[in-house]
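User: tokens in, sequence out, please.
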């Protein structure tokens, strides 16, 4: 069978996730593997009652691995709604010996909002995929021509992106600096 979510497999609704995910993994020798730390996968249901509200977490050294199957999302696999993600993604990976590996840190089929706020610097570095022994420094794979990957910077937040972004989005990425009133 498939291996789904090294730490969390969400098939319903989670309002908020806070905490760090370090060295979680999902493995199977010959089948599909999704979400080394989190698999947000409610079986095709993408209503307001499914998905994740906010994720405020660091993802470090999480992995999806298969000898002969496809692997997606070293840290996060997303096929439902995630309102926003804040935190660091460092050293996550997806490795398939003979299948397809996509999304060293994040694999998504829907819009994603990566948020850095209040002077925080979000670091996305050292993430990779490895297909048939060939390594590619890839952090995020967006597998939809209709999805948009948004980097939103609020109140002097910053994002350091040292890995590449790939997918079927035809280059639909946005970087939005947003100034908010601080009370």
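Assistant: Sequence out:
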């Amino acid at each position: 069978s498939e291996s789904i979510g090294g730490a969390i497999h969400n098939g319903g609704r989670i309002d908020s996730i806070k905490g760090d995910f370090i060295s979680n993994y999902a493995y199977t020798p010959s089948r599909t593997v999704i979400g080394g730390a989190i698999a947000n996968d409610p079986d095709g249901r993408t209503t307001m009652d499914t998905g994740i509200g906010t994720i405020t977490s660091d993802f470090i050294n999480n992995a999806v691995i298969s000898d002969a199957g496809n692997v997606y999302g070293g840290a996060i696999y997303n096929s439902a709604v995630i309102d926003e993600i804040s935190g660091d993604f460092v050293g996550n990976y997806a490795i398939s010996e003979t299948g397809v590996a996509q999304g060293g840190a994040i694999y998504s089929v829907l819009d994603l909002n990566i948020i850095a706020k209040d002077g925080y610097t979000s670091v996305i570095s050292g993430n990779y995929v490895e297909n048939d022994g060939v390594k590619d420094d890839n952090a995020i794979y967006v597998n939809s021509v209709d999805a948009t990957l948004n980097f939103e910077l609020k109140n002097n937040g910053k994002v350091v992106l040292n890995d590449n972004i790939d997918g079927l989005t035809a280059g639909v990425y946005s970087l939005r600096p947003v100034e908010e009133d601080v009370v």
